[in-house]
Fold each of these.
Amino acid sequence: MTWWGAIISLVAGAMLMATPARAALTKADLDAVALSPAPGAKVPKDLVLIESDGRHVVLHEVMGSEPTLLALVDFSCRAICGPLVAVLTTNILRSGLMPGRDFNLVMIGIDPRQTPNDAAIMRNAELADMPELRANAHFLSADAESFSRLSSAIGYRARYDEELRAFAHPADFLVLTPNGEVSQVLPGLSLDPNELRIAIAQAGSGRLAALSEGFRILCYSHDPALALYATPIRDALWGTGALTLLGLVGGIFLLEARRRSAAK
């Protein structure tokens, strides 16, 4: 095989490997997935939830009088939700803020079938090296009725893929004022420590930012066995990889042209 044929095979193989596995959800299903809180949206603070240690708590007890950073996650999802929690907690540490002191960190499971033990497994896995943060982070389970109330209040819509036994759901974070109003929506993957500090400060003063209807990160793993990235995260990574391969092809082409020119 010539060097050019080898490169073509490499590019073709990479494209095939990047092709997502078949999923049961349609484009219409995925388009319905959203986190779209209405202006003035407020979480129901009387929700009864279960801590990862099995204790029943009321949401207003967890929130106290500080602003709250709220994430809705799938405790069983290690491909996307686990890394998102890791990104969030890393940026919390970089921000200089501390849950339990400056704000409340609350993770609520989106699957009512999951148990407090599932919440504890994610909490311990993602915060293993952060004991102080782990001690002040709340990983909470909700029953179907409670989660339905919460979802309706904040405009949260997810879809369940029966074939893959996985959720397609928004992967962004909500910043809440002390009285439970949605102050801001923060991006799950591109969260910046300075942006987080500003958002927490604004929420603490009761300020409500304009809620954008722009691009949202979607957590949806097409193939759990292969741990392929979610849409559209996978698409972004595929595009980056394709550009890298094209750059490689161009570089090799230039090197080959110079070699032939020098040989004449």
Amino acid sequence: MSLSVETMSKGDFAAFIGVSAGRVSQYINEGKIYGDALHGEGRSARIRPHVARAQLQKTLEPSQRLGSNGAAARAATLVAEKAAPTVAPNPPPSPAAAPTLNLVPDPVDELAQERLKQQRITTARLQREEALELGRYMLTDAARREMGRAVTEAFKVMDQAIQEMAKTMAAQFGVPQRDAAHALFKVFREVRGKAAARFRDAAGDLPEQIVDDQSIEDEQP
């Protein structure tokens, strides 16, 4: 089945065949979509849907090949409906009244656009789940824990270093090691308190979610 559009984005082609945009990128990297099926290069490359679909029918394993029914066919219908303009028939002008312009929206076209929107949302969700499984994303709570653990380990190293510095100062300047350690720890506690406050503020400012530039580029038409 071909579409009335010549090219489409990776996100729209993913909706067309019923997979995530990340899977489409994988097909391109593996050479299963190639040559005439691509228009442009790199992340901005667009896809000629009828050529790419024919290539996938040949390059995919039998168990992975695209069926003519199901999600792919429904997605293709939605994209085609969106691409083709809907023209409402105009009734012949009545001699008794002036012609009027029909501004009532076409419910069929609105339904097709809503279905395509839902398909894009589903595709984006599948892409995020796939990226999370591959380790591309990190949960904010996990990032806060890792930050706290790293700071704690750094402070432990500093405590040990202060003991060694106090020993060196006691030997070099002839002061009791206990007095040297007390003075050093007093200064370090003040510095550590200020640093800990900055780290807490930085961790609290972390958003629950971040904008992923790669996902935005894949989803743009």
Amino acid sequence: MNRIIVGITGASGFIYGRKVLELLHEAGVKTELVLSDSAKYTAALEGEDPYSLKADKVYSINDFTAPIASGSYKNLGMIIAPCSMRTLACVATGNCDTLLLRAADVALKERRRLVLMTRESPLHAGHLKNMLAVTEMGGIIAPPVPAFYSKPESIDDIVRFSAARALDLFGIEIDIDRWGDNK
């Protein structure tokens, strides 16, 4: 059962989803991937190739027969990186009209870890209410926030840090500079 479902949505920051997949692969964790249609569009805008992602299994956004649509399919949970405000709103309200949203709903109902790397700024009250709703259902809101105490030297350093911190929430420890390491 050493597998995590990875969802990638159309919020800016496709690079976060790519990095999460890379780090999980390096850690020996199996990955199952589902991308929203908007994720593919955003990837192109950001100079990324959504078809070059490496995952153990990739599902179509409309494949409701996929194993990840069922609570009986064992896994460690799901991470959505990046998570758009639309996806957040759908998760908060139980809207399951895509496989990505159904997989997130299953994670919540099965009391598995659901981590949303939300990407938006500034936030309005509706966004905050949706974040609270997901948190109250057991999900974790983990926006990618850089840590400058680690003295990042590249964009990859910044992205790696945020992705690794999100994976900490699954008990998967990735080697990064952590607070206090340099004291």
